[in-house]
Amino acid sequence: MKNITDSFLCLGYWPFAGSFGFNTDILATNPINLSVVLGVLVFFGKGVLSDLLDNRKQRILRSIRNSEELREGAIEQLERAQARLRKVETEADRFRVNGYSEIEQEKRNLINSIYTTLEQLENYKNEAIHFEQQRVINQVRQRVLQQALQGALGTLNSCLNNELHLRTVNANIGMFGAMKEKKN
């Protein structure tokens, strides 16, 4: 067997031509085998590895583009939603302001209507009171006149005798006759 140091020093040691066999020197044969295997892998595996890397690169780029498109779509939707929100808030403020002013106007109209109704009721009450006063005054006048007439008739009947009665009737007839002649 050879010395290991001989193999390192004489890397170019090759068996003589004409002999075929296995080289059992591991240190001399491994780099050659490795270089052959690596060469074959690089030559044949380069295309497969390149295709795998290209496919992976395309998937990553597609994912990035899709993400960008989704992001832009989300930004557009957000802007539309914010614009809609601003519009709704503006309308709500306008309705709130108009609603308050309309409520105040309705309140004033209702108060004015109530005052007008109260004034009408006061006028109706005053008219009813005045009407009742006039009715009561007329009733009192009628009673007073009736009592005065009864008192006068009672006094006349007690004081009046036949002769005075005939004179009074004649005087009244004379007055009616004079009035009748004046009209004609």
TrEMBL record:
One GO cellular component term: proton-transporting ATP synthase complex
Pfam family, one: ATP-synt_B
Coiled coil (residue ranges): 64-98
GO molecular function: proton-transporting ATP synthase activity, rotational mechanism
Location in or out of the cell: Membrane; Plastid, Chloroplast thylakoid membrane
Spans through the membrane: 32-53
Membrane topology of this protein: Single-pass membrane protein
CDD domains assigned: ATP-synt_Fo_b
Keyword vocabulary terms for this entry: ATP synthesis, CF(0), Chloroplast, Coiled coil, Hydrogen ion transport, Ion transport, Membrane, Plastid, Thylakoid, Transmembrane, Transmembrane helix, Transport
Top-rank lineage group of the source organism: Eukaryota
Assembly: F-type ATPases have 2 components, F(1) - the catalytic core - and F(0) - the membrane proton channel. F(1) has five subunits: alpha(3), beta(3), gamma(1), delta(1), epsilon(1). F(0) has four main subunits: a(1), b(1), b'(1) and c(10-14). The alpha and beta chains form an alternating ring which encloses part of the gamma chain. F(1) is attached to F(0) by a central stalk formed by the gamma and epsilon chains, while a peripheral stalk is formed by the delta, b and b' chains.
Function: F(1)F(0) ATP synthase produces ATP from ADP in the presence of a proton or sodium gradient. F-type ATPases consist of two structural domains, F(1) containing the extramembraneous catalytic core and F(0) containing the membrane proton channel, linked together by a central stalk and a peripheral stalk. During catalysis, ATP synthesis in the catalytic domain of F(1) is coupled via a rotary mechanism of the central stalk subunits to proton translocation.
Family per similarity comment: Belongs to the ATPase B chain family.
Note: In plastids the F-type ATPase is also known as CF(1)CF(0).
Protein name (database record): ATP synthase subunit b, chloroplastic
Species of provenance: Hanslia ormocarpoides
Gene name of the record: atpF
